[in-house]
TrEMBL record:
Domain HTH tetR-type positions: 21-81
Record's keyword terms, sorted: DNA-binding
The protein, known as: HTH tetR-type domain-containing protein
Keyword DNA-binding part of the UniProt annotation: yes
Pfam families, per database record: TetR_N
Residue range(s) of DNA binding per entry: 44-63
PROSITE patterns, per database record: HTH_TETR_2 (PS50977)
Length: 198
């Protein structure tokens, strides 16, 4: 009898954890939908709660504020859309990431530059993607990033350098809907990387 009750308790605990994970995901998805339509600065906690169908007290059980929520959203987008190791070259992955999330990226850029932006979070996201990409795809010698990272003494430093450049393109492109210009800039970084290897 005691073992049965203990088992029930463990199952209840697992259900609570799943419910918490779903609620957290729902809040993140609500922020994604809101950022697809409006600038970060104008989004309020009340709007997030209405979109996620939760109370303010529930929101604050999961996130300190909308900045922390947006950091979680950036991580979520990266795991969903950028760290995709079977989607071709890294440049193709970055291009697809920007294409898929261009409205959110644009709305995260503060119109008032004194307000916080999320450049550091994007750099870390791209840096982690580069590390994972290199570890999985070391045999792909047709990718200039793979060849670059194999040819340098301090790979971590070069990964940070490339991540900074790619992140600048992702979040500081003044015309995020100009796909031709975006591709032109990304191709430039790819060509520059290729030349550095040679």
């Amino acid at each position: 009898m005691g073992e049965y009750n203990k088992g029930d308790g463990m199952e209840d605990g697992a259900m609570v954890t799943q419910k918490q994970a779903r609620t957290r995901r729902d809040i993140i998805m609500a922020m994604e939908r809101l950022l697809s339509e409006q600038k970060f600065e104008v989004i309020t906690i009340n709007e997030i709660c209405q979109e996620a169908l939760i109370t303010r007290s529930t929101f604050y059980r999961y996130f300190l504020d909308k900045y922390e929520l947006t950091e979680a959203l950036i991580q979520y987008l990266g795991e969903r859309d950028l760290i995709m190791l079977d989607q071709g070259s890294l440049i193709a992955q970055v291009t697809n990431f920007v294409d898929k999330n261009v409205k959110i990226i644009n709305n995260l850029n503060p119109s008032n530059q004194h307000k916080m932006n999320f450049y550091v979070e994007f750099v870390k996201l791209v840096e982690n993607s580069l590390q994972a990409y290199f570890e999985i795809n070391q045999d792909h010698q047709d990718d200039p990033f793979i060849r670059l990272f194999q040819s340098v003494d301090d790979r971590d430093l070069w990964i940070k350098f490339v991540a900074g450049g790619l992140s600048s393109i992702i979040i500081n492109n003044p015309n995020p809907d100009d796909h031709f210009r975006q591709k032109e800039i990304i191709d430039f970084i790819s060509e520059l990387t290729d030349r550095l290897v040679k």
